Input
Amino acid sequence: MPDIASIGPSTGPISPVASPRPYGAPAPVEQRPTADRAEISDHARHLERLRSLPDVRSAKVDAIRDSIARGTYDTPERMKVALQRLLDDLTA
Output
C-alpha cells in the first residue's frame, strides 16, 4: 500500500512500535557480559587429596597386622621413633 499517504506530517520512514510489556512483567534488564567461574567444593578437594595418596601396599599392611596380633610389633625402638615423629609434628 505504498500509495496511501500517512496522516499528519512525516519526516522519514515509519518505524514499528514496540509491543508493550504485559501487566506486572518486570522491565527488561540490561545484559552485561559475565566471566565464567568455577567453584570447587570441600568434598571435591578431599577426594582429590585421596586420589593423590600413594597406593596401599597390602602385603605390608597384612605383615604389620600379623605382627600386632602376635604382640611383636610394639618394640621400644618403634615407640621411640613414633614419639619423636609426634614431637616433630607438634613443634613444626
Observations:
- The chain has a mean pLDDT of 81.
- The two ends are 89 Å apart (CA to CA).
- The helical segments are 42-52, 58-70, 76-91.
